[in-house]
Amino acid sequence: MTQKTCILVGAPVDSGKRRRGCLMGPDALRTAGLGQSLRDLGHAVTDFGNVQPTPFEPDSEGQTLHALNETIAWTKALCDTAQSTSEAGFPIFMGGDHSLSAGTVSGVANYAAKVGRKLFVLWLDAHTDFHTPDSTDSGNLHGTPVAYVVGKDGFEGFPAVRNTVPEENICMIGLRSVDAAERATLQTTQIRRHDMREIDENGIAKPLAAFLKDVAAQNGLLHVSLDVDFLDPSEAPAVGTTVPGGATVREAHLVMEMLHDSGLVTSMDLVELNPFLDERGRTAKLIVDLAASALGRRVFDRTTRSFT
Fold first, then answer.
1. 87 among known catalytic residues
2. In this predicted model, what pLDDT tens digit does every residue of 197-235 receive, in sequence order?
3. Is residue 127 among the annotated active site residues?
4. Which fold has domain 5-294?
């Protein structure tokens, strides 16, 4: 197993939605033993501490988007941090709500461009997060980061995306809560998307293996964004956007072991953990276990599958 320099980056972002609690996510993952679990696998681990947003002004009166200026400030700070930590090792961004990925993915994309490689993104989530600030009905910006990183319009005030992620380089797995507007928009894109019905019918390994094969063929960097609600809420209750019918623990571990076997993952988000909603740290521990699987923990060693 290739040893990595893992950099834990706290991103206590709680501005992307109205329900509070995700700001406690980074410390919950630390308490659940993320760092030690990775050290036990032989990786070097450093804790970057928690990122702070850049200075921002209060939102204007009548603003319909929730905490717009704060989310913009987080995006700026995390974009810079994601690029610098990617240059230093394997960053793991501990969230925080999913709006943080606007910053992390754009920063990792800047790093990929700097080293002359393509960035691919695996989006493990019940939602597509493909709204724009103009199209969202809820006003919650945690539903917009994918639209931001592919370069869609409507993100006035946000930092310009210097290196957009091509639509065909994004693969979404676990979808089961997609509104009509997002569905119609996604059908005009080249984003790969696999909902839970498809997974129930054909399994989770097949679409992931096809995506990994393409990443390997193009010598890409792979960023994995894991939302707690990718999992079924019976397994992972500590999330504010519970959607029944998610991935089982077995399916999630299979995904993570396949990711490790591929050797392609270069950065990761762990998002939407709300410890206030957890049951004695159950969800935090599960997310730690999944991250460890992605970095080499397994029950038995076995011959790994080639994706080249």
1. no
2. 999 999 999 999 999 999 999 999 999 999 999 999 999
3. yes
4. Arginase; Chain A (3.40.800)
